[in-house]
Amino acid sequence: MSVPPESVEPSSDPSSSDPRPPSDMPSAEERQWAMLAHLSALLGTLVTGAWFGIGCFLGPLIIWLIKKETMPFVDDQAKEALNFNITMAIIAVVLLLITVLTLGIGIILAVPAGIIIGIAWLVLVIMATIKSNEGERYRYPFCLRLIK
């Protein structure tokens, strides 16, 4: 007795011969734009480092404003990159205020914390770039989601 083909459930085996990507997988163009949203924060920080790295907002903001209506995956990832960089900027301002308000004594806390936070920022941006290029919706830990 044979089973009609429409009654057979598709295999969940990733090695199956079906070459089509899953339906929820973003297109290659969406993945590329999402990756650029994360990388643009890194590039913006490197270019505007002399001005306290304020450029970390510009790349994700521009990509989000341009692509938010047409590419849902890019909308999500650019907002995530923008929110994360806003969070990091708030932390940097707080560390600066601690240093200024304590008349320089707070630099003992601010410099080591700033170095640790800077390294964590770099690692997390690289991880987000890789994950978004793979089509995964990356969520930064300890991120204020101010833009929804």
Commentary on this structure:
This protein has 148 residues and is mainly α. It contains 4 helices and no strands. α1 runs antiparallel to α2. The longest helix has 30 residues, at 72-101. The model has no long low-confidence stretch (mean pLDDT 85).
Produce the secondary structure layout:
Elements: H1 28-47, H2 58-67, H3 72-101, H4 107-133
Helix pairs in contact: 1-2, 1-3, 1-4, 2-3, 3-4
Describe what is shown at a glance.
The chain is mainly alpha-helical and 148 residues long. Helix content is 59%, strand content 0%.
Descriptive keywords:
148 residues; mainly alpha; 4 helices
Q: What's the gyration radius in Å?
A: 21 Å
N-end to C-end Cα span:
55 Å
Strand content: under 5%
How would a textbook summarize the main sheet?
Answer: none
Which series of helices and strands comes N to C? HHHH
Report the total helices: 4
DSSP strand tally:
0
The unreliable regions are: none
Percent of residues in helices: 55-70%
Q: What value does the average pLDDT take?
A: 85
Helix-and-strand structural type:
mainly alpha
Query: How would you name the oligomeric state of the polypeptide chains in this document?
Result: single chain
Shape: elongated
